[in-house]
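Work Package 3 (structural annotation) set out to generate three-dimensional models for the target panel prioritized at the project kickoff. During this period the team completed the workflow that converts sequence records into discrete structure tokens, so that structures can be stored uniformly alongside our sequence database. As a representative example, we reproduce one entry of 414 residues exactly as it appears in the project archive.
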Amino acid sequence: MAAFHLPPRQKMINLIYVVLLAMMAINVSSDVMKGFSVLNMNTDRQISELGVRHRLLWEQCKEVGDSAIVQKADSIRMLTASLCRLSASLREKIIRQADGEDYVRGRLVKAEDMKAVPYIMLAPTQRGGEDLRKEMERLRGFLFAALPDTAGRGLLATYLSTTSPSKYSWEREMFSTLPAVGGVLFLNQVEMNVLSGSNLVLAALLGTGAEISEETMAAGDTVWIWPHGMNIIYAGITNALDVHAQDGGRMDLKVSNGRAYKSKGRWYVSQAKVGKCVVEAKMDGVSCGRSVLRVLELPSPSASVVYKSRGTSLRYQGRTPIKKADFLKAEGLEAQYSDGHLNYTSRVIGFEMIFIASNGKVTTLDARGNRFTAGQLDKVRTCAPGEKFYISSIMVELPDGRKKEIEPMEVILI
């Protein structure tokens, strides 16, 4: 049989079609990559903060003294750690597959690669997506069973949902068309959701444990006391307490560390120092409840540059690129701390900006307060795309009145 050959005209049409598809892919990729980069800016820090709270909640559950709660808390920590390790492993496999010979652990170079995610997550020889789904379902089932408050299951379900919106599997819907950076971002989000869901259940167990702990309750107690959200409070600030009594009567709270007072129907503890705080409840002068709380030092806030883009306020926290035009729209720095339980803002007292030229010359420009000076902004205007500078010596006033230097920022201009 004679071989079939396309006419030259048809070959040219096919070639133009392929080039057009490639150009469309490049255009879409540019916009999508920008969106993924913005979404991925702060996930590492958020995962770290959620991990710290997860460990703290687990340790507090173990201190309750109830064996059933301790066993559940240990199982949650084990399953959570296993799922986070799987997510981190899949993330690294995607980076390795995308970058090939350019692979460096923890750093994605070929963010736009479209083959790595489907291969690692869906290929029959890999099945990373299926493994991830099964582990998420396993953890979700245990958390649902361990959650004492059934009303919280709706929120928990949103953290660990593996429901497919179509007839195809969840993993196929999630990973078929993601670029490498999208896969990395998705797995980061999975890790954040896993920690958030686990923390939700651990906090609920802790609230239950506060009612039955030998340390918190003595036989015959009729008042239960624990801090709003978890059983720690912070030094130097006002902390809300959840206080529940079985019987009516005039109740009063006494604390061994700080000051307890009631305002608009809620009890608070303020002026406590780092260590322990024993809270004792008395009903009509008779002791009826006792709780031992841990008092921790107030965690440091993080600095951010707040600017507006298309009418939306955005926060830039450094280490990732920002357009020079966007940076120049900002007026200064803000300092905030937020972990889902504790949220506060600190006043920025002063800071400095450090510019290091290619010849090694260092220029340092100081500012008092939180606003950028005209000299600082003029210096930023002279920076070329790709240049870096540093915002350091950031002094803030914490809510307890202490002044503290917080971590510096690295600014990368594009």
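The chain has four domains: 9-34, 40-212, 223-296, 302-413.
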